[in-house]
Amino acid sequence: WDRLRAGTSRPTQDELHPPTTLPLAKPDKRCLTGRVLCISKQSRSLAWMVDGEVRSAMDVRFGSQYTPTRDGAFKVYWKSRDHH
Predict the structure, then answer these.
(1) Distances in Å between the alpha carbon of 39 and those of 14, 47, 60, 61, 67?
(2) Where along the chain do its domains lie?
């Protein structure tokens, strides 16, 4: 463990929050109120937004032509911290 820690540096803020590779798409109007994950297939990005302000963003990948990602608005209906 000590050897691993000795060879590991503390990440910088830029390393912890790298910019997205592509520019973010203009958010859908549904992303402008509340706390939402706004996902764009067009810009291949995911943005965590609070009342229309982007708090965090990252690049994402979607399904292939044989297993495409569905379009639509979805809700989290169940969460479990210790689900196995």
Answers:
(1) 22, 6, 9, 10, 18
(2) 31-61
